[in-house]
């Protein structure tokens, strides 16, 4: 029984070199595939002081994650000195999660770098949330650094080019304003957009002009309008912070008050004419009624006169008329 066992052991010893050779060949083939597919990428990360686990690169492909995007993002963040905190910083796993959620990883990294250069407090979580909310996080950071100018009204979104308001004097003023805003990153998620800023500023300008006693005061000091509008806090609950409101152009329109007074006077004249016409028609009707009454009375008199001969004839027939004469004699 020992002899067969020894024979099997000898056979296994003969197969061991083949097995080792097979494993080595498989490893070499796998290494070659890795070097061909990820060698340049891994070497680029290593030379940029970014440690990437080789297996992570392989698993990224299995998870349908573009490894080049993740590695480039890590390299940019590391070179810019952004997200170095291992707990809240920029890690491979967090970048993969944002990529799989449909986020724009390069744009988020560029926004973080721009915010870091401008000394703006913006971490990866907030930047990723802004990006997933559908907002352009990089444009938001740029707007925070370089304020944006919005026309009020916006000619691209409205057919009107000026705001129309009427002072208490009745004179119309046509105004075009320019609003300088910068992004409020803390309220960017859920905050109102530019359309709300334009609507609020337009309402504030119209209200300020409407409360002015005279249009000339507005023409002399347009900055009163800007100050009055700014004091109302129109940027509350919006994604922007209003820096300034400047009156770019102001023109005099129609004298609405005079036109309204003229229209009212014309309406009063027409009303008086209508009343006079009604009184004249009533007088004519009353005259016709009086004429009808006179005609009726005349007809009554004629009827009475017609009855006198008949009464006399009847008296002759009865002989009462003679009796009456004798009695009188």
Secondary structure blueprint with pairings:
Elements (H helix, E strand, L loop, with lengths): L1 H46 L6 H9 L4 H14 L11 H9 L4 H13 L6 H9 L4 H9 L2 E5 L10 E4 L4 E13 L10 H17 L4 H6 L2 H8 L9 E16 H63 L1 H9 L1
Antiparallel strand pairs: 1-3, 2-3, 3-4
Subcellular location: Cell membrane; Membrane raft
Protein name: Flotillin-like protein FloA
InterPro entries: FloA
How would you explain this protein's 3D organization?
The structure is a single chain. The protein is α+β, with helices and mostly antiparallel strands. The protein folds into 2 domains: 11-143, no CATH class; 147-255, Band 7 domain (Tetrahydropterin Synthase, Chain A). It is 64% helix and 12% strand. The protein is built from 12 helices and 4 strands, in the order αααααααβββαααβαα. The chain has helices at residues 2-47, 54-62, 67-80, 92-100, 105-117, 124-132, 137-145, 194-210, 215-220, 223-230, 256-318, 320-328, and strands spanning 148-152, 163-166, 171-183, 240-255. Strands 1, 2, 3 and 4 form a 4-stranded antiparallel sheet that branches. α5 packs across α6. The termini are far apart. Residues 323-329 have low confidence and may be disordered. This is Flotillin-like protein FloA. Homooligomerizes. Keywords: Cell membrane, Membrane, Transmembrane, Transmembrane helix. Belongs to the flotillin-like FloA family. It is a single-pass membrane protein.
């Amino acid at each position: 029984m020992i002899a067969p066992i020894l024979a099997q052991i000898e056979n296994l010893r003969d197969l061991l070199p083949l097995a080792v050779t097979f494993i080595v060949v498989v490893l070499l083939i796998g290494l070659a595939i890795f070097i061909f597919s990820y060698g340049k990428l891994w070497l680029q990360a290593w030379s940029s002081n970014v440690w990437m686990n080789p297996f992570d690169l392989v698993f990224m492909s299995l998870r349908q994650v573009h490894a080049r995007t993740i590695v480039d993002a890590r390299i940019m963040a590391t070179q810019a000195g952004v997200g170095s905190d291992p707990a809240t910083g920029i890690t491979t796993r967090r970048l993969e999660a944002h990529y799989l959620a449909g986020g724009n990883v390069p744009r988020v990294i560029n926004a973080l770098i721009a915010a870091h250069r401008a000394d703006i407090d913006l971490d990866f979580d907030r930047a990723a949330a802004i990006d997933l909310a559908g907002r352009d996080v990089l444009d938001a950071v740029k707007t925070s650094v370089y304020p944006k100018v919005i026309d009020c009204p916006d000619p691209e979104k409205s057919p009107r080019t000026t705001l129309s308001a009427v002072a208490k004097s009745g004179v119309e003023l046509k105004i075009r304003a320019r609003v300088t805003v910068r992004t409020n990153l803390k309220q960017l998620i859920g905050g109102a957009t530019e359309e709300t800023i334009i609507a609020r500023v337009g309402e504030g300008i119209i209200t300020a002009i409407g409360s002015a006693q005279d249009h000339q005061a507005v023409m002399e000091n347009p900055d009163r309008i800007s100050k009055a509008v700014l004091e109302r806090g129109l940027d509350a609950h919006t994604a922007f912070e209003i820096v300034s409101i400047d009156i770019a152009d102001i023109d005099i329109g129609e004298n609405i008050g005079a036109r309204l007074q003229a229209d009212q006077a014309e309406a009063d004249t027409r009303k008086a004419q209508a009343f006079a016409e009604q009184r004249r028609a009533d007088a004519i009707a009353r005259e016709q009624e009086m004429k009808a009454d006179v005609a009726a009375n005349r007809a009554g008199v004629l009827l009475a006169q017609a009855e006198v001969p008949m009464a006399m004839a009847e008296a002759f027939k009865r002989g009462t008329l003679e009796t009456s004469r004798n009695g009188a004699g």
